[in-house]
Design a protein that fits this description.
This protein is an alpha/beta fold. The protein folds into 2 domains: 269 residues, Aldehyde Dehydrogenase, Chain A, domain 1 (3-Layer(aba) Sandwich); 178 residues, Aldehyde Dehydrogenase, Chain A, domain 2 (3-Layer(aba) Sandwich), CATH 3.40.309. Helices cover 38% and strands 21% of the residues. The strands form 5 sheets. A 7-stranded mixed β-sheet has the order 14-15-16-13-12-17-18, with helices on both faces. It has a 6-stranded mixed β-sheet with strand order 9-8-7-10-11-19, with helices on both faces. Helix 13 links the parallel strand 15 and strand 16. Helix 2 packs antiparallel against helix 4 and helix 4 packs parallel to helix 6. The mean pLDDT is 97. Bound molecules: nicotinamide-adenine-dinucleotide.
Length: 485
Amino acid sequence: MIYPEVRNYINGTFVPSKSTQYLDVVSPLDGTLLSKVPLSCAGDLDDAVTKAQQAFRLWSKVPIKERVQVFYRYKALLEKNISGLSQLIREENGKTFDEAKAEIEKSIELTEFACSLPQITGGEILEVSSGVECRTEACPVGVVASIVPFNFPSMVPNWTIPNALALGNTMILKPSEVVPLSAARIAGLLEEAGLPAGVFNIVNGNRSIVEAICDHPGINAISFVGSTKVAKIVYARATSGFKRVLALGGAKNHLIVLPDANRSMTAANVAASMSGCAGQRCMAASVMVAVGDCDPIIDLVCKEAAKIIPGRNLGSVISRAAKDRIEWHITEAEKQGARILLDGRNAIVPGKENGFYVGPTVIDHVSPGMSIATEEIFGPVLSVIRVNTIDEALSIENSNPYGNAAAVFTQNGGMAKYVAERANAGMIGVNIGVPVPREPFSFGGWNESKFGVGDLTGKSSVQFWTKLKKTTTKWNPEAGTNWMS
Ligand code: NAD
């Protein structure tokens, strides 16, 4: 085992769980046993919530301009430690070093945004009738929990941590049990940056600790990022206990390609979108809907994708189960008559035979009803569906139950606008394969890709992490009293 057993982080200290149940943490790069992670019990969560409640009393009273000083220092620490942090992400998640580094760069950008919160959360004041002032104030919600998935061990926790804490909340993070090591490093850096004990806590575990978080009366709000299946469970369970919940789910993103699209740019974008992070991104291209004669572009996509080599510029998928599931879907599509243009099944990386690799895969002549076209595959696989008209393409995109992202590739501005207006997704790309809105814009999909109101990052997140106090004040008794004063 390369690293010591993972511990929980409660009140500024790494502590062993009270549970005796542990899971192995295995590197998907080569199957190496990295560590063991505890499946924490309700008693661990109780401790963390008690400490977070105590810390909230002080932290929520610290002026926001002082709170964000911690995040200026945290940002500097992310920059200083970028190489080691990226390496750790690579080991536990399997993505390439450059992809892991990009994740830390994004974490830095998220932290920069949190540092700007004093400038945008100032509240409003207005004299609403003679001598009577109304003032709004964004107050922290209390103890919040952030439940995160495996695919971005640093970026997704950092979607929530800097904003929620800068706005005065205290937090319990529940990392993915598959990649718990980066979260512990985040805790160490926050501590080094001067975050007071108890403001940020980590409780490790899987399903049962998530259920305990949903039910815990001391937790006021929960953000969840993961699959749609679990997002629905968490949303239903936690809101039935009257908690505030924002639950981001899975995705099935369609890229609509028109024959006039810039060929090389489109092919490079599509190939990068479907294969980046081994296809394990909720913003990854999954279906290319080719309108009319797109053969030259499809050929180029295959050429671009063929340059992406497992173990070189393509990381592993997260587990043996993920590899088997992805390959099963490819085989099913083949059996149902789709044509495999580029086959990533049975990829082996010499020297890393125990790793979990799937090569880039392009499947042509997929029909809309095939499972490869309807289910979230979460691997480096692109399905190509051919249609004759833009409305057929939109009808396919519109009828998928998710709504994270959609994109259009064309050089015709009118067509781009037509698709952007009609695509049924929260994040739209025009000639962009991974249309992640950067700060201060907010991240969040629609439909079965998100349950709850608002978005998780950027300006729109402020509403989720705060509650608005409205104070109406009158100091002029001489003005008399009527219904407006
Ligand atoms: P997951 O849903 O399996 O797990 C997410 C979290 O929920 C983990 O912390 C896990 O421990 C916990 N969990 C798992 N099963 C549970 C259950 N039955 N009850 C309660 N908690 C449970 O997701 P994952 O496999 O870690 O991540 C991949 C998924 O996340 C994909 O579907 C991907 O699209 C999605 N994702 C979405 C976004 C987004 O912004 N919409 C971002 C990243 C990932």
